[in-house]
Amino acid sequence: MEKIVGMTGLTSAHADPKLRRGSVSDGFLGTNLFTYPRFTTTHADVIDLPGHCHRRAIALELADQARRFRVISTHLSLSQLSLSQPLRIIQMRIVRQYLRRQYCWGT
Question: What superkingdom does the record give (predicted)?
């Protein structure tokens, strides 16, 4: 992780341990989110998703002087089993429900 940050100048969005799978992990199941240093994380949430392996989505609100936006990073179930398509649909519905909540960051 430090090598990627050093080579690119980007910042890992997973500095906070609650935004990782555990203390020895850099993210969730190979998913890592990097941002430009000029963006500040103003809000972050972890969204638990169902699946055979524990899955999560990371939702961030990022801002700089000119703009504010949301980013969601996730790794959905990709199994070749016939049951994986309905599971991905459920996972995306959970993400959609999160986005459609009445609570709006910063408003």
Answer: Bacteria
HEC sequence for 13-37: CCCCHHHCCCCCCCCECCECCEECC
Contact at 8 Å (CB) between 38 and 63?
A: no
Instruction: Write the pLDDT tens digit of every residue in 67-96.
Output: 999 999 887 766 666 566 788 888 899 999
- Which residues 6+ apart lie within 8 Å of 95 measured at CB? 47, 49, 57, 72, 74
pTM of the model: 0.75
Which tens digits make up the pLDDT trace of 31-72?
788 899 999 999 999 888 887 777 788 899 999 999 999 999
Residue 70: give the domain boundaries: 2-100
